[in-house]
Backbone:
């Protein structure tokens, strides 16, 4: 799908943000969930049949949880099973690893983002995926819509969990 950047328009012009880009992705509307989505993402990124990215260059982020929704240990466990070491799995807050809802209520959930290490030096001891220094470049995002945010602000599990993946 063709996309025009709006949410982070102030970032346009740096080494990784354009005004217009094409987003490649797909949906699972209940056919598969976290484990299958992460495994397919990893295979596409690392298999010589597809992009062939060296797994040693990949770092991932997952939702660290908060007072409303627990930490996404399921996604982290899948990444570990694929060989991503604990040192390259980062648990980040809602502002970094959560999608939605599109309005004040509705489907939403944690996401897991994949980053490639560009080889640049760490900018500080706090440098990690999501840092704007250019060391890490986000290349894919798997959104796991497993919650419904209700009008009273609470979250309930969805009966049918969905995945929205995208890379661009």
Residues:
């Amino acid at each position: 799908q063709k996309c025009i950047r709006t949410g982070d328009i102030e970032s346009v012009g740096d080494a990784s943000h354009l005004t217009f880009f094409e987003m490649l992705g797909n949906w699972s509307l209940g056919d598969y969930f976290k484990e299958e989505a992460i495994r397919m993402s990893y295979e596409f990124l690392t298999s010589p049949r597809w992009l062939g990215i060296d797994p040693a260059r990949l770092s991932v982020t997952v939702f660290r949880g908060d007072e409303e929704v627990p930490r996404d240990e399921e996604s982290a466990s899948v990444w570990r099973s694929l060989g991503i070491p604990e040192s390259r799995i980062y648990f980040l807050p809602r502002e970094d690893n959560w999608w939605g809802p599109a309005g004040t209520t509705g489907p939403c959930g944690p996401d897991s983002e994949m980053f490639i290490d560009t080889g640049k030096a760490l900018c500080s001891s706090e440098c990690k995926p999501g840092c704007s220094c250019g060391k890490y470049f986000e290349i894919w995002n798997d959104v796991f819509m497993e919650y419904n945010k209700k009008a009273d602000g609470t979250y309930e599990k969805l009966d049918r969990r969905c995945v929205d993946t995208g890379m661009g």
Residues 122 and 135 are 7 Å apart (CA to CA). Strands lie at 2-4, 20-22, 24-28, 58-63, 89-92, 98-99, 106-117, 136-149, 155-167.
